[in-house]
């Protein structure tokens, strides 16, 4: 037997060569060989010691096959990479590399974000020397109990797969496992490969075959026969069913299957934050958003439903109203993840969303929801659509009062003739996710991109960059509060540098408006949220000029006061050749009253404040409606 052909590469070179060789099949045959495109759209990198000499050299060598992008903050780079993958429905992704120490720990928040949202990202933090010869190196966290621990151990609870590459040969097993997790629907999430800086530079004779181009397959498995039978039995007895569409519907590319199921069986659909855009906003059975940020239509039917079909959802508290929303419903759960499928003591159906819905539909034959339920759903959906038009509609005269988020959303959507087809809105935290969940209208899967698993302030602009990199032909609209903007905005400069145009709409209400309202709803005094309620020195809080700030980063920008001015500014933003920011002053007190439901936030049991005591009593009362 002749020895396998080998090639001598450093560990870092082998890693990059392997990533660059991976392909994924896309429906688009014009994309290249058989419609296959690189699985990795590129690598975001900020160099420092721990990655510049080793991995940096390798990335330079393979820069034609695997482009390297530079940004300004490691967390933001990872946000962009995660958004890129989300926008590709998890079929394409990016890697992110950092130096050791602070560069690495800056990635931790993003790792958690990807973990919660089940989104793939490959994190490649530099690590301390395996030899330990120069210890302690600059930025090394020294653990006195365990010599093997570095700052990168903090990634362990935040990664779906973690490995530290102590020896170059280890890549032969670590990389296939990493890619498996990144491309597996059930396990999908962040993968961290910690790369000690000395090992990055060590050479090894790798088998040439290891780097042969491979096309990654995304498995989709249908339900087991017994689980399908149990699900059918439950549904056939149901008269008032409701579907919850979660992110799994989008990631499973099950939008058509969902629509066919809903139409054939007369079952209305409500959407979670991650699932919004699974069904077109104007579909007659589209009830809209569900839960704490839900529409009156969806929440009313959730309370009356006898069976809730939860498809591809984690059932987080915003969806279930902290377990208070589904009055008497039995849950049927269709999910690829064996943990998710167990939640709520559901009738479990471990299955891909598309295959699961198709199998159910076939087994149900001509079963339909009751005619009265169907009629109620159509009527409620229709009436909510009319309310959305009303809430977001054009005002005849610009009122002297400050506009609120719902009116801004309306203006943004009016600023394009085909907003529901062409735009992708990006958001994550603050007042806006609730408003957008209720009010944003989209007809295309992925037209709504709100990170509400981790709801991480600072995701918005960096995430928008990743979305634009994934969908360069769409208008990417980042809607962001002043608080989130100030937390992380530097990738505006990256969007200009990479010519990835964003339209950024900042809603400046002078503070953390949503938390201020939450604080008072819990009986608290307005304290430490709005700038005016914070400790201040001689100069008070500065009047922040968001347009000037964005301009200093290379964007075009303007500040406006009224909805009419906003509409005019958005026309300029749409026509602009680069990232364009429009900032509008908004009302911190107002939010859309229609819809919503209870959300459990613990209120102090004793307090000197009467308002807190009242809120506590209401809290205890509300908890009685929780299904435990
Ligand atoms: C990184 C991070 N820190 C803190 C929070 C808690 N939080 C959620 S929204 C919010 C305030 C957001 O302020 P802003 O962006 O101005 O939006 P607004 O509520 O005023 O509309 C805070 C502090 C968070 N979600 N993420
Ligand atoms: Mg604010």
Q: What is the radius of gyration computed over CA atoms, rounded to a whole number of angstroms? A: 25 Å
What is the molecular shape? globular
Arithmetic mean pLDDT: 96
Count the helices. How many? 24
End-to-end Cα distance: 64 Å
Layout of strands and helices, then pairs:
Layout: E1 6-10, H1 11-21, E2 22-25, E3 36-38, E4 40-45, H2 55-61, E5 68-69, H3 74-87, E6 93-98, H4 102-105, H5 108-117, E7 121-127, E8 161-164, H6 171-182, E9 190-196, H7 197-200, E10 203-207, E11 214-216, H8 225-236, E12 241-245, H9 247-251, H10 255-265, E13 269-271, E14 286-289, H11 296-304, E15 307-311, H12 317-320, E16 330-335, E17 347-350, H13 353-364, H14 371-392, H15 405-414, H16 419-422, E18 423-427, H17 432-439, E19 448-450, H18 459-470, E20 475-481, H19 482-487, H20 491-497, E21 503-508, H21 513-521, H22 546-552, E22 556-560, H23 563-575, E23 580-585, H24 610-623
Parallel strand pairs: 2-11, 4-5, 4-6, 6-7, 7-9, 8-9, 12-13, 12-15, 13-14, 15-16, 16-17, 18-19, 18-20, 20-21, 21-23, 22-23
Antiparallel strand pairs: 1-10, 2-3
Helix pairs in contact: 1-2, 3-5, 3-18, 8-13, 10-13, 11-14, 15-17, 15-23
Bound molecules: thiamine diphosphate (TPP) and magnesium ion.
Plain-language structure description:
By secondary structure, the protein is α/β, with parallel strands linked by helices. It is built from 24 helices and 23 strands. Strands 5-4-6-7-9-8 form a six-stranded parallel beta sheet, sandwiched between helices. Strands 14-13-12-15-16-17 form a six-stranded parallel beta sheet, with helices on both faces. The protein has a six-stranded parallel beta sheet with strand order 19-18-20-21-23-22, sandwiched between helices. Helix 3 (74-87) crosses helix 18. The longest helix has 22 residues, at 371-392. The termini are far apart. 52% of the residues are buried.
């Amino acid at each position: 037997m002749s020895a396998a052909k080998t090639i001598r590469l450093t560990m870092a070179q082998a890693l990059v060569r392997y990533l660059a060789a991976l392909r994924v099949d896309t429906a688009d045959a014009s994309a290249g060989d058989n419609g296959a495109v690189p699985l990795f759209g590129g690598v975001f990198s900020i160099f420092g010691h721990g990655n510049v000499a080793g991995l940096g050299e390798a990335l330079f060598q393979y820069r034609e096959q695997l482009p390297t992008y530079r940004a300004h903050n490691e967390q933001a780079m990872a946000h962009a990479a995660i958004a890129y993958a989300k926008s590709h429905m998890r079929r394409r992704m990016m890697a992110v590399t950092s130096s050791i120490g602070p560069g690495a720990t800056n990635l931790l928040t993003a790792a958690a974000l990807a973990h919660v949202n089940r989104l793939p990202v490959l994190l490649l933090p530099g690590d301390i020397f395996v030899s330990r010869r120069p210890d302690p190196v600059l930025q090394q966290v020294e653990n006195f109990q365990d010599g093997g621990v570095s700052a990168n151990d903090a990634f362990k609870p935040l990664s779906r797969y973690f490995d530290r590459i102590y020896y170059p040969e280890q890549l032969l097993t670590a990389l296939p496992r990493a890619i498996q997790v990144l491309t597996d629907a059930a396990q999908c999430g962040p993968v961290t490969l910690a790369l000690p800086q000395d090992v990055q530079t060590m050479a090894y004779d790798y088998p040439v075959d290891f780097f042969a181009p491979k096309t990654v397959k995304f498995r989709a498995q249908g339900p087991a026969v017994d689980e399908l039978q149990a699900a059918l039995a439950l549904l056939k007895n149901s008269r008032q069913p409701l579907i919850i569409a979660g992110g799994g519907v989008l990631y499973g590319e099950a939008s058509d299957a969902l629509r066919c199921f809903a139409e054939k069986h007369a079952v209305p659909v409500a959407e979670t934050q991650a699932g919004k855009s699974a069904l077109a906003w104007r579909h007659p059975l589209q009830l809209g958003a569900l839960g704490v940020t839900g529409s009156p239509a969806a929440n009313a039917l959730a309370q009356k439903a006898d069976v809730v079909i939860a498809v591809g959802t984690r059932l987080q508290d915003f969806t279930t109203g902290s377990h208070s929303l589904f009055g008497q419903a039995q849950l049927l759960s269709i999910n690829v993840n064996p943990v998710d499928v167990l939640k709520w003591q559901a009738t479990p159906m471990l299955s891909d969303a598309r295959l699961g819905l198709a199998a159910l539909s076939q087994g149900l034959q001509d079963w339909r929801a009751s005619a009265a339920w169907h009629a109620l759903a159509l009527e409620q959906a229709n009436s909510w659509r009319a309310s959305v038009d009303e809430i977001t509609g054009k005002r005849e005269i610009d009122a002297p009062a400050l506009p609120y988020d719902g009116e801004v959303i309306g203006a943004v959507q009016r600023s394009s003739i085909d907003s529901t087809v062409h735009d992708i809105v990006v958001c994550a935290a603050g007042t806006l996710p609730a408003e957008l969940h209720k009010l944003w209208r989209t007809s295309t899967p992925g037209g709504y991109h709100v990170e509400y698993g981790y709801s991480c302030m600072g995701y918005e602009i960096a995430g928008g960059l990743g979305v634009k990199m994934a969908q360069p032909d769409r208008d990417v609209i980042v809607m962001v509060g002043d608080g989130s903007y100030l937390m992380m905005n530097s990738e505006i400069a990256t969007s200009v540098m990479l010519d990835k145009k964003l339209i950024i709409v900042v809603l400046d209400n002078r503070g953390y408006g949503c938390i201020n309202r939450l604080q008072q709803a819990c009986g608290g005094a307005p304290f430490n949220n709005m700038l005016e309620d914070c400790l201040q020195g001689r100069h008070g809080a500065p009047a922040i000029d968001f347009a000037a700030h964005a301009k200093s980063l290379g964007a075009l920008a303007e500040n406006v006061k009224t909805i009419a001015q906003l509409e005019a500014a958005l026309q300029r933003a749409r026509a602009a050749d680069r990232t364009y920011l429009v900032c509008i002053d908004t009302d911190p007190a107002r939010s859309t009253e229609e819809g919503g439901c209870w959300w459990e936030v613990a209120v102090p049991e004793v307090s000197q404040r009467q308002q807190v005591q009242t809120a506590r009593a209401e809290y205890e009362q509300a908890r009685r409606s929780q299904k435990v």
